[in-house]
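DATA SHEET
Item: assembly model
Revision: 1
Owner: S.N.
Input lines:
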Amino acid sequence: MKKLLWVIERDIRLFFQYKFLLIMRAIWFVSQIVLFGLIASRMINVPDYFRYYIAGLSVMTLYSASMFIGFDIYEEAEHGVFEYLLSLPVTRRQLVLGRSIGGGLRAFIYVGPLIAVSLYIIGAVTIKSSDRFDILMGVLDALIVRLSTAMYPLGFVQEANPLYGWIANFNPVTFAAELFRWGTGVEALISLNNPLLPLLGVIAFLSFFTFVGVILYDKRIEGGGWR
Amino acid sequence: MNLADLFIMAVVYNRMLSPAITEQIRSYFNFFAPGLAVTGLFASAFMIGREINMERRNEVHHYMLSLPMTRFELAFGRVLSGGLRGMMYMAPLLLTCFIFIGFPSAVQLLVILVVLFALALGISGLSVAIAVSTSSLEKFITARGLVYYTLFFCSSVFYPLSLIQQLGIEGKFPAVLVNFAEVNPLSSASDMIRSFRFGIPPFSFNMIVNVLVFSSAFTLCAIFAYIKLMERQ
């Protein structure tokens, strides 16, 4: 357990070294609220769209902060830090599990103050990395966030294109955004009536991808498979 | 990223527009398409700054200064190449935009290309000026973030200018930001394409003047800053 915590601690420390990425994300978050959110809400025929959008924004930021762990792992593979990690006196499982937990935890730590800002507005609380990896993350980010209900209610997505609606229905960002809105009282526009459904969706997503991540990472790190 | 904005976000927003805005812009997809080309141009023309900032930190600029060309040629060449790269990246986006909203006349197309090139030069100049004035990557990225998001979101790229002006009248948006949005070259370039294709907003020579003033100011500023700061030990 202690060794697992060391792995988690290392990843959290590593995350806060990316000062410029954190600053960029924070500026993006604030400008999305005070500029885009405020103005776009006047254009949209959805009641209380400003609060709806801000709740989705928190989940978008959480999602992109969680994806940073991918950059770390890619960097380590490129710079030969994997060999060092494998030589540490921790088991492979501890290393892999620690990294998964650390990746999620540090996103929560980072997004925490930003969520506090969102909650306040909502009123609930009255790189250097490989270009290929950058492109992949950019595409994933663009598709996963836009094909979710982070920015717009599910009914409109389905109406715009049934395929988009179908994807958004099973998108983990949709589950998290709906759950966040339910929890913060922005309930008028949530698409899933039973909060248990998005909760189950998030748990299923978490379990499946943690399992897949652990298996893949475990397999790839042995014998120089990352090279 | 740019195309996902157009083919997903704009398609969905199309369904969500308030009747008053629908009456004004008719289709959000068509409204946003010119804005998308302008944001693509902005992002790609701005990339030259990151390279120059990196060269400065890695002291490659000493090599650049040793090349057999005048300082002015070097500085203006960098700004010009940044602008040209922006135009090259934007070309397919602009073509996609025209495929959906319809092609302008030959004269209008020429005006659009000239104005967009001037805009690309100004953006490239702005980026170079920031790059040579910031010593660390963190400072450059922070400055870039502020410039990026202020210019993007405080413009008519995503929403009609009238909305920002209305918010200003209601006192919900600072007057300084309303004025900024009105003279923002991204607003002017996007609205100029819209005015040529849809007649809304009506064309005004101020749109071209805004872009040319921005372009001249930042091109000169970048050349001056590049020459002065690169020679500094």
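QC remark: Chain B has eleven helices and no strands.
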